[in-house]
Amino acid sequence: MIASNVDLSRRNTLGLAAQASRYVAVRDPAELAALCADAGLAALPWHVLGGGSNLVLPDVVDGLVLQVAITGRRVLREDDESVWIAAGGGEVWHDFVMWTLDQGWGGLENLALIPGTVGAAPVQNIGAYGVEVKDTLAELTAYRLDDGSARVFDNAACRFAYRDSVFKQEEAGRWLIAEVVFRLSKCPRLQTGYGDIEAELAAAGLPRTPAGVAQAVINVRRRKLPDPAVIGNAGSFFKNPIVPAAQREALLAAHPKLVSYPMPGGAYKLAAGWLIEQAGWKGRRLGPAGMFERQALVLVNHGGARRADIAALTAAVQADVKAMFGVAIEPEPVWW
Questions:
Q1: Lesser CB count within 10 Å: N end or C end of the chain?
Q2: Catalytic-role residue among 11, 22, 163, 306
C-alpha cells in the first residue's frame, strides 16, 4: 500500500515539518521483493525509517520512505551463561530492553529509555553510560534495497565504531535491517562507573541488578533529557569528540574543569555537552531551535523548526566550540 504526500512530522522525534512524496510500511521482508520488482518505484531514491529519533529531515523527502514495521521477539538458543534473542527491526527499542530485563537477562540495561527501534540501533551503534549495542549484538539480518536479497552481518562485519557502523559509511542507504540477534547474559556484569549511575543507585535505594541499573538510567535520563512528546528533540545531538592525550592535556591546563574520559589506545573522549555549555549555548535559542536548558548536548525544536533552522543552529554551535577550544564537534543524527 503505497501512500503519497505523507506527513512525517509525527514520525521524527525532532518534530520537523516534513513530507514524504511516497511512503510504505514494511511488515514482512518478503514485501521488499515486490517493491524492488516495481520499475517505477525502483527508479526512485529509497529511505529507510525507524523511529525517527536520530534523524534530520528535509522539508520534502523525495522518493520512497520505507517505514520498518517488522516485529517479533524469540529465543534462538541458550547455554548456562548466555541466551541468544532475535528481535524484529520494527520493535520499539526501550520496550525490547525492558522485556529482556523482565526475563532476567542482562546486557542492555544501560541502554534503557533510548528512543528508536531495534533495527536502527546498530546503524548508530547506540550507546549510553559506558555500554554500546556492539557489546551484545551477535548478528543481524538485512535486506538489500536494490533487489531484496538477504545477508547476515556478524558483529565484525558491522564494523562498529563510536556512534558509527558500516551502515552509516560505505553501506549507507543500501539495506533494511529486519532482525537483530543479541547475546545476553544470565550472569551479568554490571557497568555502573559511568556518569551518575552509581550515585543514582545509592540515592534511590535501587538494587545492584540489571533491572536496578535500568531504573537508575531511566531516572537520570528523565531528569536530564526532554520528552520528545513534549518538546521535539533527537536526544544527544552532538558526538563526544575524541582527541589525543596531548591535546587533552593542553585543554586541561587551560580549562581545569574539562570533563573527559580515557579511551583505548590512550586517546580521550571529551564531554561535548560541557564544551557546548562553556561556549554559552546551554538554554540558548537561534530562531525556533535551541539547546536544551537542562542539558546543553540536546538540541530542541521549540515549535515550527525546519531543517534549515537545525542546520543554522548546528553550524553556530560548532563554530563557537571550535573558537573556544579548538575542537571540532560533529552532529550524531543522520541528515536525509
A1: N
A2: 163
Taking domain 3-68, whether its CATH number is 3.30.43.10 is answered by yes
Active site residue 332: yes
Active site residue 9: no
The answer to whether residues 70 and 119 touch, using CB atoms and an 8 Å cutoff, is yes
pLDDT 10s digits, 176-228: 999 999 999 999 899 998 878 999 999 999 999 999 999 999 999 999 889 99
Q: What is the pTM of this model?
A: 0.87
Among candidate residues 82, 236, 248, 260, the one labeled active-site is 236
CATH tag for 73-185 (out of 3.40.50.2300, 1.20.1250.20, 3.30.465.10, 3.40.50.300): 3.30.465.10
Spatial CA neighbour of 262 closest among 274, 245, 239, 238: 245
Q: What is the DSSP letter of 209?
A: S
From the list 91, 109, 171, 332, the catalytic residue is: 332
- Res 170 pLDDT > 80: yes
Domain spans, the chain? 3-68, 73-185, 232-335
163 is catalytic: yes
pLDDT in tens, 268-278: 999 999 999 99
